[in-house]
Amino acid sequence: MRYVIFNWVHPDDAATWESWTPEQQAADVERHREWFRKFGEKVVSGEELDMPSRVKTLRPGRQGEGVVVTDGPYVETKELLGGFVVVEAANVDEAVAMASEWPSLSNLPNSTVQVQPVFVRE
User: Fold this and answer.
1) Integer Cα distance of 26 and 22 in angstroms
2) How confident is the model over 14-40, as pLDDT tens digits?
3) How many domains does the chain have?
4) Could you tell me the pTM of the whole model?
């Protein structure tokens, strides 16, 4: 079964990462590369996402306005969706075990990782 591992980034953690030296940032990137090397055979796809300031959100318009496009993701959360990885796992426990080793969970205090099954229509 496929699961999506979402990496949510708290703004405080993003600011912390930006304040790190280039060497600290490179070490963090290497920790993520190690995760992908470890679980690579189970990774189906995934992407790191750009900053929310570059997002466009589309919603139905009011009173026949058609579709309205606005800047940014206006959701009730402080966290930013930093990226996602689609993995193939035997069950949710295996997907959670993989996600529990996501590097940010060990070095950024507000890090959040979410595991969600991919819906399969029969």
Assistant:
1) 6
2) 899 999 999 999 999 999 999 999 999
3) 1
4) 0.84
